[in-house]
């Protein structure tokens, strides 16, 4: 114990993306002593990469928009698997959270009358996404970061949490190591907010960074919290497919919002061929109507390219599989064609989609103002995660809160684009406030020294096996191939069973992983520690996906290609059993209150 | 596929040496891909910072063949491969390990700059009105990804080590974004002149040349700030005009 540094806070926030920063600001505003821990430097979290915008029904561009429409859109997009209370709070509170960013210095793109501009996005009935070109995430994280540094929050950068420490049934602190020196730190606190983001690194082709190793979900699971909806992983329809080294990097949906269209190798707009029944009323009949929609014509309906992500991704997959793909195994996304419709189209594209322009120019030598892009599906987001109370964001473990991508509920079976950034703000704030309240009302948690000693020894064990044949990177790569091939965008029972067997083998090998070198800034060691989290969560995803014998939202089963109303009645919930095994349960979805059910009906037309 | 030699700086706390590694280069690869290949195959403990691999987070700054660049946005086919490609950490900051430097000074500097201070809201619902033309300039500055490459290349920091007095181009961009924000009411000119030593900048434009976000740091941020400082402190007439008119609108 003498070798670990000790730090104490009232509330400890893990993660400095949008959710973590907003939670820390909210907790600090109550007067609590707040610590903020993140794996990378401040301002580098995944949120920085978000492009298209954040959804909030402010009605600046179309005054027919309001929270009821946003609520109904979110529920329909999520195939009614959502925690409806969260969908309601999110729709109601998002506008205030966006305005608050403006008060803290954010500079959104403007409408002609000087208000915050909003753009179209898949699954949102009206233009709803507040944005800054295609770098909205940067604007958001920088605004929160620059505000947070003046709020008396203790920031611990490049510090990774490896264990939640418990006192009886509640959270009492965490064990972490700092990257630079590899030294351990014990944080004791009255409440923890997990805001650690997603799990994309479990798959080979992903838009996610190295940080997305499912830490928060696994930490919570190990501490006894429930996970929910783990089968619902979002494959974004448009990732780069070429060159190989950038495969998976995101191409924002904003391209389609600005009029970009999808074509197969025969030049056909294949999305017109497959429009789901429940969206038909709101989808354009002709290319002409679709174009008018993207240009703000309120009487026009959306082009089918802006249907929900799960659907568009599967259509692309189908085109490729049936031999109508592009040379590098994708389809074409064409924004250059708008020059047929508007003057100065090249400048317009560069102004509206500057990062996409640079991304393709620099990484693929392609000028998107003249040439179509090649795109294909990429693992993007996980709807499932830590199960939380809709109002407070507390998990099933007292004192343990979760917000942002690592929490489950808001998005159900499929997330609408733009609903994540607003999620981070709405529920980050709530988590921070409720965590501060919990810490104040439940003082006196203590960290056990023996638990710390055990966790430190476990974390250092890869060094003792320095000569081991098992290398962390190799196992990580094998895991990514396995999940990509067998638990990816199109799933089958038999393949997933094979994946589950293979996962047991990888888990055994991971226990033998050895790393060389010393503890200072040693990425091999960090990868070895992250592996356990990735393996646990991959197993949860595969188990839940086997259990849901239907297709819904992000979860598509080749052997059960249709929706099954019996499966509409429950969420799949998992927890660690007393014997260490993964327990799975079908948890009934509570009935919608009448008011909310009424809104859904009223918005169906 | 071509085998290419990389001469990578390895070591700790400034003590180190170049070591040669080879990586197989395929079409479209960037330097960061090569570093990852070497890390996975030959040097598991090679320390690198990176996150997004798409030029959006500003983590992977390094000096490639002596030029400050983002590793994830430097394509292999723009580098000559007939001789080894050198990859070194940024030299203007204390070294930690291999390609990683201690950039914490930058985060401390930011805290010293007066925070955003908006005027009262324009509308009863607590919101403001700003038109696009008024925010274009500020949006250019807000593209900054805090890669600190401009700080790395600025001779005032790199060669003269004025870290205690001079805040560097990144924070002139930051100050300009605040000063030219249509809603902001705080005055940072005295700080810029006295505590942040904007006068040390002699407009070499090296910072502008390396900025991966193509922010025209010198022309659009530093020179206008310098002009405002001059107006405020050396031109009594302009100062009077300012007193009467208030802070110049952007
Ligand atoms: C390319 C891309 C574009 C996107 N575009 C949009 C968009 O336009 N609109 C939208 O709504 N959504 C978008 N999304 C989704 C959205 O950006 C993310 O879901 C969201 O930013 C997640 O935020 P977060 O706060 O939950 O986590 P993150 O921003 O990912 O932050 C996670 C934090 O947790 C820390 N952390 C993780 N594990 C540990 C640990 N063990 N110890 C300590 N710290 C830890 C990390 O260091 C990091 O600081 C996009 C996603 C991607 C990848
Ligand atoms: S222009 Fe000024 S700030 Fe930029 S590199 Fe030269 S001296 Fe430094
Ligand atoms: S101004 Fe440009 S070079 Fe400097 S930190 Fe920002 S993005 Fe990097
Ligand atoms: S890794 Fe993000 S800028 Fe290079």
List its salient traits.
heterodimer, A: 605 residues, FAD/NAD(P)-binding domain, Flavocytochrome C3, Chain A, domain 1, Methane Monooxygenase Hydroxylase, Chain G, domain 1, 3 domains, 35% helix, B: Ubiquitin-like (UB roll), Fumarate Reductase Iron-sulfur Protein, Chain B, domain 2, 2 domains, 5-stranded mixed sheet, 10 helices, 7 strands, elongated, binds flavin-adenine dinucleotide, binds iron/sulfur cluster
In short, what is this structure?
Chain A has 605 residues and is an alpha/beta fold. Chain A is built from 16 helices and 20 strands. In chain B, helix 9 (217-234) packs across helix 10.
Describe this structure as you would to a colleague.
The complex is a heterodimer of chains A (605) and B (250). Chain A is α/β, with parallel strands linked by helices. Chain A is built from 16 helices and 20 strands. In chain A, the strands form 5 sheets. Chain A has a 5-stranded parallel sheet, covered by helices on one side. The longest helix of chain A is centred in the last third of the chain and has 25 residues, at 523-547. The model of chain A has no long low-confidence stretch (mean pLDDT 95). Chain B has 250 residues and is an alpha+beta fold. Chain B has 2 domains: 2-101, Ubiquitin-like (UB roll) (Roll), CATH 3.10.20.30; 104-245, Orthogonal Bundle (Fumarate Reductase Iron-sulfur Protein, Chain B, domain 2), CATH 1.10.1060.10. In chain B, 36% of the residues lie in helices and 16% in strands. Chain B has helices at 31-41, 104-112, 132-141, 149-153, 155-158, 169-179, 189-194, 206-210, 217-234, 236-245, and strands at 2-12, 15-25, 61-64, 67-70, 85-88, 95-97, 100-101. In chain B, α9 (217-234) crosses α10 (236-245). At the A-B interface, α3, α4, α10, α13 and α15 of A face α1, α2 and α3 of B. Flavin-adenine dinucleotide is lined by residues 14-20, 37-40, 45-47, 49-54, 136-137, 160-161, 195-197, 207-208, 211, 215, 250, 381, 404-405, 417-421, 424 of chain A.
């Amino acid at each position: 114990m003498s070798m670990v540094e000790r730090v104490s806070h009232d509330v400890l926030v893990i993660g400095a993306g949008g959710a973590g920063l907003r939670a820390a600001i909210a907790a600090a505003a109550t007067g609590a002593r707040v610590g903020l821990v993140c794996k990378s430097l401040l301002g580098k979290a995944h949120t920085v990469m978000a492009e298209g915008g954040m959804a909030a029904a402010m009605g600046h561009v179309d005054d027919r928009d309001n929270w009821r429409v946003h609520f109904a859109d979110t529920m329909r997009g999520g195939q009614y698997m959502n925690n409806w209370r969260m969908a309601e709070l999110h729709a109601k509170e998002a506008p205030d959270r966006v305005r608050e960013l403006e008060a803290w210095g954010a500079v959104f793109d403007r409408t002609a009358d000087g208000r915050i501009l909003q753009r179209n996005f898949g699954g949102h009935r009206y233009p709803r996404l507040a944005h800054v070109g295609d770098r909205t995430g940067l604007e958001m994280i920088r605004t929160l970061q620059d505000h947070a540094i003046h709020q008396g929050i203790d920031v611990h950068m490049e510090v990774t949490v490896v264990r939640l420490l418990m006192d009886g049934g509640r959270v009492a602190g965490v064990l972490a190591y700092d990257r630079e020196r590899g030294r351990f730190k014990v944080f004791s606190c009255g409440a923890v907010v997990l805001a650690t983001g997603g799990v994309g690194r479990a798959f080979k082709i992903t838009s996610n960074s190295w940080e997305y190793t499912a830490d928060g979900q696994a930490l919570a699971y190990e501490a006894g919290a429930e996970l929910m909806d783990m089968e619902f992983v979002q494959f974004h329809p448009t990732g780069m497919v070429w060159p190989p080294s950038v495969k998976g990097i995101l191409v924002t949906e904003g391209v389609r919002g600005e009029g970009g269209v999808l074509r197969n190798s025969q030049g056909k707009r294949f999305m017109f061929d497959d429009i789901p029944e429940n969206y038909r009323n709101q989808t354009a009949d002709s290319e002409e109507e679709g174009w008018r929609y993207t240009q703000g014509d309120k009487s026009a309906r959306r082009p089918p390219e802006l249907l929900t992500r799960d659907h568009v991704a599967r259509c692309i997959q189908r085109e490729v599989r049936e031999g109508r793909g592009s040379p590098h195994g994708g389809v074409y996304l064409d924004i250059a064609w708008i020059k047929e419709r508007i003057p100065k189209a090249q400048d317009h594209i560069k102004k509206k989609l500057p990062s996409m322009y640079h991304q393709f120019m620099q990484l693929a030598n392609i000028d998107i103002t003249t040439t179509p892009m090649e795109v294909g599906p990429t693992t993007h987001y996980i709807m499932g995660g830590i199960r939380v109370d809709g109002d407070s964001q507390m998990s099933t473990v007292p004192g343990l809160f979760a917000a942002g991508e690592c929490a489950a509920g808001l998005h159900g079976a499929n997330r609408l684009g733009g609903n994540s950034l607003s999620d981070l703000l709405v529920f980050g704030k709530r988590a921070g406030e409720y965590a501060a309240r919990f810490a104040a009302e439940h003082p006196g948690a203590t960290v056990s020294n023996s638990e710390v000693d055990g966790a430190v020894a476990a974390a250092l064990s890869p060094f003792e096996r320095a000569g081991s044949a098992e290398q962390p990177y190799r196992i990580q790569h094998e895991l990514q191939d396995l999940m990509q091939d067998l638990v990816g965008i199109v799933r089958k029972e038999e393949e997933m069973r094979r994946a589950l067997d293979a996962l047991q083998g990888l888990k055994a090998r991971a226990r033998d992983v050895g790393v060389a070198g010393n503890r200072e800034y040693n990425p091999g060691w960090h990868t070895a520690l992250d592996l356990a989290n990735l393996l646990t969560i991959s197993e949860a995803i595969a188990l839940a996906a086997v259990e849901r014998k239907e297709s819904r939202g992000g979860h598509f089963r080749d052997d059960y290609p249709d929706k099954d109303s019996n499966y509409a009645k429950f969420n799949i919930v998992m927890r660690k059993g007393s014997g260490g095994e993964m327990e799975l349960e079908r948890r009934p979805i509570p009935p919608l209150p009448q008011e909310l059910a009424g809104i859904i009906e009223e918005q169906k037309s | 596929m071509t085998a290419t030699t990389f001469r990578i700086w390895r070591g700790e706390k400034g003590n180190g040496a170049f070591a040669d590694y080879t990586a197989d280069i395929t079409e479209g690869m960037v330097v960061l891909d090569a570093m990852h290949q070497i890390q996975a195959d030959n040097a598991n403990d090679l320390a690198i910072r990176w996150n997004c691999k798409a030029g959006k987070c500003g983590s992977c700054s390094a000096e490639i063949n002596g030029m400050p660049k983002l590793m994830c946005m430097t394509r292999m086919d723009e580098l000559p491969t007939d001789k080894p490609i050198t990859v070194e950490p940024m030299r203007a900051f204390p070294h930690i390990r291999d390609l990683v430097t201690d950039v914490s000074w930058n985060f401390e500097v930011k805290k010293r700059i007066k925070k955003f201070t908006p005027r009262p809201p324009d509308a009863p619902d607590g919101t403001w009105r700003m038109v696009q033309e008024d925010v274009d300039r500020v949006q250019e500055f807000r593209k900054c990804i805090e890669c600190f490459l401009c700080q790395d290349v600025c001779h005032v920091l790199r060669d003269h080590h004025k870290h205690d007095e001079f805040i560097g181009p990144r924070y002139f961009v930051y100050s300009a974004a605040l000063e030219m924000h249509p809603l902001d009411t705080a005055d940072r000119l005295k700080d810029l002149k006295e505590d942040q030593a904007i006068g040390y900048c002699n407009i070499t434009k090296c910072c502008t040349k390396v900025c991966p976000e193509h922010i025209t740091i010198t022309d659009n941020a530093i020179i206008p700030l310098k002009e405002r400082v001059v107006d405020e402190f050396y031109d009594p007439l302009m100062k009077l005009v300012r007193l009467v008119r208030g802070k110049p609108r952007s």
